[in-house]
Amino acid sequence: MRSTDAEIGSALRQLRESSGRTATEVAHAARLSPTILLHKAETGRASLTGAELAAVLDALGANFQVLHLKLTGRDLDEAALNLLGAMATLMERFGR
Predict the structure, then answer these.
(1) What is the model's pLDDT at position 81?
(2) Average confidence (pLDDT) over 66-88
(3) pLDDT (average), residues 69-92
(4) pLDDT of residue 45 exceeding 90
(5) Distance, CA of 47 to CA of 77 (rounded, Å)
(6) How far apart are CA 23 and CA 32, in angstroms?
(7) According to the model, what pLDDT value does residue 84 have?
(8) Rounded CA gap, 85 and 8, in Å?
(9) DSSP state of 22
(10) Cα dist from 59 to 28, 44, 95, whole Å
(11) Is 8 helix (H, G, I), strand (E, B) or coil?
(12) In angstroms, rounded to a whole number, what is the distance separating the alpha carbons of residues 7 and 44?
């Protein structure tokens, strides 16, 4: 499944808003030029390059896996529980 610019922008906006930061603050931290680029990306009117997207995610303390979870409608708590369950299964299987 390939996400659209609007879907990626919406996910970025959700991540940014949950961090309590403005688009301008994140754009400055990510060294985007012009800073309005992040606002345009969040509204689906512009796309970010891979490097720009990585810089924005880094400025938000996130990564591509977190973005993927947002895009697929899963939340981080669910993902963490799934990971812990998988680790517990492996530990039981290998006797640790």
Answers:
(1) 58
(2) 73
(3) 71
(4) yes
(5) 28
(6) 11
(7) 62
(8) 29
(9) -
(10) 9, 20, 40
(11) helix
(12) 7
The position carrying tokens 């400025």 is 59
Q: How confident is the model at residue 76 (pLDDT cuts 50, 70, 90)?
A: low
CA–CA distance, 74 with 68 (Å, rounded to integer): 9
Structure tokens that stand for 85 in this block: 């369950």
- pLDDT number for residue 2: 76
Considering the domain 5-93 in this protein, what is its CATH number?
1.10.260.40
The tokens of 74 are what? 């899963």
Tokens 């517990």 correspond to what residue? 88
Query: Are 48 and 35 spatial neighbours (Cβ–Cβ below 8 Å)?
Result: no
d(CA 4, CA 13) in angstroms, rounded, equals 14
**How far is residue 94's CA from residue 88's CA, in Å, rounded to a whole number?**
10
